[in-house]
Amino acid sequence: MTILSILSLISCQRIIDNLREEEANENYVSPFKGVYKGNYSGDEVGSLTIEVAQNGYISVTKVSQFSTENSFVSGMVRDDGALQSVTLQSGFTLLGNLKTKSGTWKMGDWVGNWSVTKQ
């Protein structure tokens, strides 16, 4: 009986902890929420629009002389501003930090720099 009571209490506590975590995630607002616009240069040149949603997920629009590419969710920004897994379908990858609003990009053998300002 005692073991069953302890297991029930542990299970209830896990349920409560999970509910609190879900609630915290729903109420989270990224410190980088907003729209950032700027340019990228290097082996290709163009403009960037980075939109950070409340939950920290990122959407990117890249406009170059060759094409326009949109990504609805292409990664996220961490609380320290570092971009994580921000890659468009073409392989265009942004590396950097929204705290400094700059970084590097790569796409295959092509590389360069980018910078944005918050709108």
Q: What do you see in this structure?
A:
The protein has 119 residues and is of the alpha+beta class. It contains 1 helix and 10 strands, in the order αββββββββββ. A hairpin with a 5-residue loop joins β5 and β6. The longest helix has 26 residues. The chain is elongated.
Detail the topology: elements first, then pairings.
Elements: H1 2-27, E1 34-42, E2 46-52, E3 58-64, E4 68-71, E5 76-77, E6 83-84, E7 86-87, E8 93-97, E9 102-107, E10 110-118
Antiparallel strand pairs: 1-2, 1-10, 2-3, 3-4, 5-6, 7-8, 8-9, 9-10
Offer a quick outline of the entry:
The chain is an alpha+beta fold and 119 residues long.
Helix/strand structural class = alpha+beta
- Strand order across the biggest sheet? 4-3-2-1-10-9-8-7
Distance between the termini: 62 Å
What is the 3D form?
elongated
Order of helices and strands: HEEEEEEEEEE
User: Strand-residue fraction?
Assistant: 35-45%
**What is the helical fraction, as a range of percent?**
10-25%
Tally the beta strands.
Answer: 10
- Number of alpha- plus pi-helical segments: 1
Query: If you average the pLDDT, what whole number results?
Result: 88
Radius of gyration: 20 Å
Largest sheet: 8 strands, antiparallel
Low-confidence runs: none
Keywords:
elongated; alpha+beta; 119 residues; two-stranded antiparallel ribbon; eight-stranded antiparallel beta sheet
